Amino acid sequence: MELADLSAQQLADLIRKKEVSAVEALEAALARVAAVDGAPGALDGQPDAEGVHAFITLTEERARAQAEAVDAKLAAGEVPGPLAGVPFTVKDIFTVKDTPSTAGSRILANFGAPYTATPVARMEAAGGVMLGKVNLDEFTYGSSNESSAFQPAPRNPWDLDTVPGGSSGGSAAAVAAGEGALSLGTDTAGSIRQPAAFCGVVGLKPTYGRVSRYGLIAFGSSLDCPGPVARSVTDAALMMNAIAGPDARDATAAAVPTPDFTAGIEDGVKGMRIGLSPDYDQITFFNHETGELESQPLPKEIAQAVERAADKLSEIGARIVEGVPMPHTRYGIPAYFVISRVEAASNLHRYDGVKYGYRSAAKVGDLRELYRKTRGEAFGLQPKLRILMGMYVSAAQYSEQYYQRALRVRSLIRSDFDAAFDPEGAHKVDALLTATTPTTAFKAGDVYGDSVLMQYADQLTVPANHAGVPAISMPGGLDAGGLPIGVQLIGPDFAEASLLRMARAYEMATEADAWRQQRPMVLAG
Amino acid sequence: MGRWDYSMGAILADGILAPMAEKITPETFQHLVQLAALELDEAEAEYLLGELNKQLQAIEELAAIPLEADTPATSHGVPYADAIRPPLRADQAALDPNVEAIKGQAPEMDDDYIVVPDIPKEDL
Known about the structure:
The complex is a heterodimer of chains A (525) and B (124).
Chain A: H1 8-16, H2 22-36, E1 42-43, E2 55-58, H3 60-75, E3 87-91, H4 118-125, E4 129-134, E5 150-151, H5 169-176, E6 182-187, H6 193-199, E7 202-205, E8 225-230, H7 233-243, E9 273-275, E10 282-287, E11 292-297, H8 300-315, E12 319-321, H9 332-348, H10 367-378, H11 381-394, H12 400-421, E13 431-435, H13 451-455, H14 462-467, E14 471-478, E15 484-490, H15 496-509
Parallel strand pairs in A: 3-4, 3-6, 9-12, 9-13
Antiparallel strand pairs in A: 1-5, 2-4, 6-8, 7-8, 7-14, 10-11, 13-15, 14-15
Helix pairs in contact in A: 2-3, 5-6, 7-15, 9-11, 9-12
Chain B: H1 26-35, H2 42-59, H3 99-103, E1 109-110, E2 113-114
């Protein structure tokens, strides 16, 4: 196995034992980037299906200095940290001092961040080596990465004609292709879990408040969660050890103790109660032709992956609890359409061409015209759409019927989870097992442009964001076309360690399965 | 049973709103574009108005959800009990170590001032 394909855990272990140097690990990751990535995303670039295109900015020099520092520490007999020399990437929605921090948008293309986001700083303090910043949907607004102003946008390493998912598509694609063992992503409606599912890797959305948002360029401030993308469950746990915990710079980072997320991770699922809900077996969507809401069962292959996972978890000792009612699941997307847009519009008002970022070069009469020209020229269609919708649904005359109502519907969604996880309740489950996505990776160009259909890709992931609870997506098989299927475990507040333990148990129990031996197209042969 | 009254903000007795079925008209759209400080070309405007109205149809489902009078609005999903609410930082001013780097981000500076075009004045 090549160095670039080793897990973060294996790599850090070899580096600590000085069997491999951090610089060698970095060289291996850089060689992999050179072999599979192709041109990085750039303004005015064109879509391309000949490479993974995970990156916007490769920070090779910075990475080399970090790797050398890790090796120097080891040579001096110092402890270099639990992520010693592990190459990782960062979704370009986090600020990293003195590197471009673009949010995938023209409006921040020239922005050099003056400070580093807390989770990135913590990974570096743990010995991690940042390879660079990876691509995303513009300001994270999408589920395919196609909306990035930096093209070519990432493609799915399993099939370069398909999308990697989004919005942490660059993160998932990079990890799947061996361009770094770990990536820091964000999840507002499924933006870690959906691309993880599409790219056959592990993605964890922590509890809201578990990981600091300091330095995260905001989208939906009540929903955004930074979290790990990794090739194995243990690697996701290792990364959580580095990034989780209170932060004086983020008043919403919860003051809860941070456990060792790897402790007991291989203790199995004996006695754990895992729920299945009929409300996650179907997708409900709005049919614009008929003007009616329609429900459809999940595609067979995806439903079967969930059944297989339930059977496997049952075999190894979990108690499967069927029929857990989650009746408000279907309201996740309509409520999200309102809440996330209001928060997005509010967060995007700061981009005005005055203090930093893009400023229109057009001749303007006054400041107001400068705002309009700057924002008109430098925001893509998806930010514009979110700003306009956010302003509409929060306008004084509509706020009660849309925004205030959506905030109350979020309480109902939360109450479904409270009831399911209630230790005194009817079901008492430790987690819910569901599919992560209603489809596997779709072809580039197939969905982009239809903002409603694209949003419904998040239907099974968004309820956890509304409720604030943690959820993990892990590989659960391949479809007939050889594309990965993700299955999801959703748990109660701050139960990441328990979710990681269940996911690790499933990973160990399926280790020898034929689908686990398959590799992404870009690495095969 | 009354109808939803946009001007009064009335809610039907059983907590279900009357169907909204509102469409964003081109006039309302233009007003939103102004408020949002955007400038759009024709093709963009046509796409965005179309998508907004499609999204509104999807959002309408919210109206049909029965809500009890005491169902609270959430600021986010996780209830922040006092025990996990982080203490407020001390209210102390401190100079950022990166003042020059921050100033250097401004598109146009004149000494310590950021230069902008004329600021419009309106008689109120």
